[in-house]
Amino acid sequence: MLRKAMGRTLGVLVAAVVWLAGPVVAGAQVCESAVQCVVLYPQDGFGPATNGTELVFNAAVGGLNSIVSNTRGILASGTNGQADINIHGEVVHVVQDAFGIQQVHSTIRGQITNVTDPQGAIFPAINSFGEIVYLAPDALGQSQIYSTTRGQLTFLPVGDGGFEDGPALDDFGRVVVVRGGPLLESDRNLYEIGPGGVLTQLTFFTGTQIVRQPTLAAATGELVYIIVEDCDVTVVSERDGVLFSGGNVCGPDRGSFPDLGADGELVFLDHVDGGAIPRQPAFAIRSTIGGGQCGVTGAVCELPVCEAPDADGDGEQDDTDLCPGTPNDGTPVDTAGCSVDQFCAAVDMSQGYHSAVRCRFADWMNDTLFGWPGDCRVERVGRRSFVCVAR
């Protein structure tokens, strides 16, 4: 019971400190730079986006789906779907309104859309000029692509299969989306939206190969997307060809959700074993630029996992250390990172006889039968004041 109580109290404090201080937090990992390390987070996160200097991604924080920045921490909570970021740090994402309808939001301008159809507005993308494109139903319920500066961009007839993914947007106004093929419903290919909503097909995959998740580099217009065949994922650049292959979307989403930064950096979702949660895999955001190790754009790198901090050097990571500040002199600690002195001192001695019993039976390492003899003893510090100390 003592250990559980300490865990509840100190765990909240540690979580608060971790999320309010320092650069980015993702699961148990902290990263100083988007391009120098792999960001780990549990299985409920996805969707990295970068502007070349800042990385944003979607992860569960305190039970809420949140948009997290590697430099600014939590940007928004209660979000749905992935986010996008431009060079000015403006992030667009999706939030459900009071009626449960998904709306596009900006971290600078607030709510962007006011859709009343239950389908809502999804898949927002933003360029350097602040133009936002997104997918939303028209007055007849048919999904169309809209722009905050150019209005409705597509005019699909009612009953059309509609768009499956995207849109992607660059600084030249180019918009690319994924939609089903005209003959086979299973086909998924890239289309560019032209004037008057004319759709020009860019890829021609059929059968088991489908295209998903297009992204455009805002400044250069480079187009990157993924090809999925059965479970295998390949990240492809329109300009440079294959950038990453060997991913898997039937298990971990390796290679999915690619995004391009202003400097040509490509980030995408990957998977590593041994994440923040013991015995569970973790997703990771991988970058094609990594300081001295990975200086060639387009060369996918196995970047080092960021080390979780251990400020007191007791071998227990800060996010799970219930007793921060253990003397850094080799003092033994238990699995919660507590020395025997810290463990005993945490016993509540405000309940008289019951506190004394609890102190005497406190088992630091959980290594004695029925907690006796315990590792702590009661010591008088005043006429009616007692503390619990190590034996």
Global structural class: mainly beta
Give the proportion of residues in helices. under 10%
- How far do the termini sit from each other? 20 Å
Domain count: the total is 2
- The total count of strands amounts to 28
Mean pLDDT: 75
Give me the number of helical elements.
Answer: 3
Instruction: Sum up the overall morphology in one term.
Output: elongated
Using the CA coordinates, give the radius of gyration: 26 Å
Show unreliable segments.
Answer: 1-45, 273-282, 290-307
The CATH H-level superfamily of the largest domain is: TolB, C-terminal domain
Strand arrangement in the largest pleated sheet: 3-26-25-24
Strand content: 35-45%
CATH class of the largest domain: Mainly Beta
- Any idea what the CATH architecture of the largest domain is? 6 Propeller
- CATH topology (fold) name of the largest domain: Neuraminidase
